[in-house]
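for the recovery benchmark. tokens below, seq after
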């Protein structure tokens, strides 16, 4: 198939082949596995502790704040690697340097905001 929609047909066919392989693997797994459900196997299991009480627990917000800060630094690290490769290319030096300082300024502003809100201290 050639033309504009020919590329889309190839992508759709490859997607369908991938879905068929995935569902086929799940189906073969379901057919080959042993199934012996017992009441002990059907109970909820969490880290070796027997389920007692309600299934709802409250988490503190500071853990989410540290998670968001980790994501910010992970995005920063992911952005640094392509920048380092483009920085060495001729003609891109000053442009990429300015872009990186703008990006780092946004990161620094976020860290300053988190520091001012006192979310960086572990209590």
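predicted aa per position
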């Amino acid at each position: 198939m050639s033309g504009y929609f020919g590329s889309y047909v190839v992508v759709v066919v490859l997607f369908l082949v991938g879905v068929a392989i995935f569902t086929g693997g799940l189906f073969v797994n379901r057919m080959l596995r042993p199934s012996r459900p017992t009441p002990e196997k059907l109970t909820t299991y969490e880290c070796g502790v027997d389920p007692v009480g309600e299934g709802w627990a409250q988490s503190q917000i500071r853990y989410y704040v540290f998670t968001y800060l980790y994501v910010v630094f992970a995005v920063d690290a992911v952005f640094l690697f392509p920048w380092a490769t483009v920085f060495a290319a001729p003609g891109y030096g000053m442009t990429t340097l300015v872009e990186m300082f703008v990006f780092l300024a946004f990161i620094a502003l976020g860290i300053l905001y988190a520091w001012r809100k006192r979310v960086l201290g572990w209590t």
